[in-house]
Write a structure and sequence with these properties.
Blueprint: H1 3-13, E1 16-21, H2 23-28, H3 35-49, H4 54-57, H5 65-81, H6 88-96, E2 100-105, H7 111-115, E3 122-124, E4 127-134, E5 142-144, H8 146-155, E6 176-180, H9 190-206, E7 211-216, H10 227-236, E8 240-245, E9 260-263, H11 267-273
Parallel strand pairs: 1-2, 1-7, 2-3, 7-8, 8-9
Antiparallel strand pairs: 4-5, 4-6
Helix pairs in contact: 5-8, 6-11
């Protein structure tokens, strides 16, 4: 039996599936931050500053907020509001939609909900490109940003947005920033805490059941959130199994090798075989 067939059998036999998703899943769906896609949307910034990928450009200390938001509005638009180039998230949903599932993800591109996953079965631990928060922050509030980002995309000229479109906190007037976990200013609002509790409750209810921990594209940037916790639970839970699909980075510790399926391949390609 091949590995894809093993994973299909494990999925079919599981009472519950816990999906842990990292950047590799979105990469497989076509959200590539360098190369042709980067040049298509950021050739002017690349020419001016010598950037080679979107990620690097996000850390540049721009001289003005107008230029900063010209860059970030494009970044948010192409990685949050545009559809994924490949239907990898939809293929994943087709595999788990009839299962008792829950998703925990470090991704911030909102692709699970766009693909049709139940929002009450999702825990976005690291935030969402589609949300603003105060940069201080002065309060624990977050704000949808689609309309503001759309206007910045449409009205920017010469790598700058109009000054009146620079987003400012409606409470204190300070500049806004994205609701992303970069440091201790990250806002965990009520919705974040409710999602965290739903995830904890899901784990509590399924500890004694036949549970598959499906690790898709997570790496070692924040391994405690998905990878290490999945390894621990797969080891401690008597009827749990662990599966990992990750191009070049699929492995499991010795303690759970016997109950693991590790596939070093493109995630989207494997999902189509299951």
């Amino acid at each position: 039996m091949g590995q894809a067939e093993e994973l299909r059998s494990a999925l079919q036999g599981a009472d519950a599936v816990v999906v842990g998703a990292g950047a590799g899943l979105s990469t497989s769906a076509g959200f590539v931050y360098n190369g042709e896609r980067f040049q298509q949307y950021f050739c002017d910034f690349a020419s001016k500053y010598g950037f080679s990928d979107m990620y690097s450009g996000g850390f540049y200390p721009y001289a003005t907020l107008e230029e900063y938001w010209a860059y970030w509005s494009r970044y948010i638009w192409v990685n949050r509001y545009m559809n994924a180039p490949k239907p990898v998230y939809e293929d994943l949903l087709a595999l788990v939609k009839d299962k008792d599932y829950f998703v925990i993800t470090t991704n911030v591109d909102h692709q699970f909900q766009k693909a049709g996953f139940d929002k009450h079965r999702l825990f976005y631990t690291q935030g969402d490109y589609g949300l603003f928060q105060c940069s201080e922050p002065c309060c624990q509030k977050i704000y949808d940003n689609e309309e503001t980002v759309r206007q910045m995309m449409e009205q920017q000229r010469n790598m700058r947005v109009p000054s009146e479109l620079v987003p400012r906190c409606p409470v204190c007037g300070r500049p806004m920033t994205m609701n992303l976990r970069c440091d201790d200013t990250f806002v965990e609002n009520e919705g974040w805490h409710r999602a965290a509790e739903r995830y904890s409750e899901f784990l509590r209810r399924h500890k004694g059941l036949k549970t598959l921990f499906l690790d898709l594209g997570t790496g070692m940037n924040t391994p405690t959130i998905v990878k290490f916790s999945f390894w621990r639970m797969a080891n401690e839970w008597p009827d749990a199994a662990y599966a990992c699909i990750n191009l070049g980075e699929a492995y499991a510790p010795k303690e759970i090798e016997a109950k693991s399926i590790c596939i070093n391949a493109d995630i989207g390609s494997v999902l189509k075989q299951i």
